[in-house]
Amino acid sequence: MPDIQIYTSTICPYCIMAKRLLDKKGVRYIEMNVDEKPELRLEMMQRTKRRTVPQIYIDNYHVGGYDDLYALEREKKLDNLLKIQ
After folding, report:
1. Nearest-CA neighbor of 64 among 44, 42, 48?
2. Which of 10, 11, 34, 46 is most deeply buried (CB count within 10 A of its CB)?
3. 10 CB contacts (<8 Å, ≥6 apart)?
């Protein structure tokens, strides 16, 4: 199972949709809420060069946001990244 990290904020609908898709896939992820720990937003911006949430990593691969995650699902590439048979 890959290491999945997702930067989120509490009221972000795209964060909710991203977590819902990952939950549907049955994978575990580490959620890092930038509202609860503001220092995580700075970390996220330095790491991703982006300001918006969600920001999703699968192992060392920066997926991007929800639209990027869903594009991988549509293209039938997400399961391979998640190591789902």
Report:
1. 48
2. 34
3. 33, 35, 36
Residue 8 CA, distance from chain mean position? 8
User: And the tokens for 68?
Assistant: 């990027």
Find out if CATH 3.40.30.10 is the number for domain 4-82. Answer: yes
Residue appearing with tokens 């990244």: 81
Q: pLDDT tens, 23-45? A: 999 999 999 999 999 899 999 99
Task: Residue 56: name the closest of 1, 3, 5, 2 by CA.
Answer: 5
Strand partners, 58: 4, 61
**Confidence (pTM):** 0.94
